[in-house]
Structure formats: C-alpha cells, structure tokens
TrEMBL record:
Species lineage: Bacteria, Bacillati, Bacillota, Bacilli, Bacillales
Name of the protein in question: DNA-binding protein
Gene3D superfamilies attached to this UniProt entry: 5' to 3' exonuclease, C-terminal subdomain
Domain of life according to the entry: Bacteria
C-alpha cells in the first residue's frame, strides 16, 4: 500500500464518538481528513485530544497533514 492510496481508512483506535463525529462530516478516510484544518476537526463534538493525537500520527505516517489555512 502506498502513502498516496485514495482510500486510507481512519484509524479504528480513535474511538466510536470520534468516528461518528468524523462520519457526520463526511470524513471516512485520511485523504478526506486532510482536507480539513486541525482547528476545524478539534471543534467537532466527540473528537477529543486523544483522537486528535491518533489522527495526527496516522496522517504523518501516510505523509499527509491537516489543511493549513
């Protein structure tokens, strides 16, 4: 699997509330997540500091990043 795969799933370890929050904003993959800013994602109800850390590491691992405004 390459780091530019068009369908890298979200990490399952972020927890159900964070997963539901991201799905509510039509975010199902890391590629979709990197279209959002860190501040925007932090504001989603259900996405806490633990989920943000896990998501940040996953993005970095796949050579992706949150959008910079």
């Amino acid at each position: 699997m390459t780091s530019y795969s068009s369908s890298t799933p979200l990490p399952q370890t972020i927890g159900k509330p964070a997963t539901r929050a991201l799905h509510a904003h039509s975010i199902y993959t890391l590629e979709e997540l990197c279209m959002k800013s860190l501040e925007e994602v932090k504001a989603y109800h259900g996405v806490g500091p633990k989920a943000i850390k896990i998501l940040s590491v996953a993005l970095h691992t796949h050579q992706l990043a949150f959008r910079v405004d």
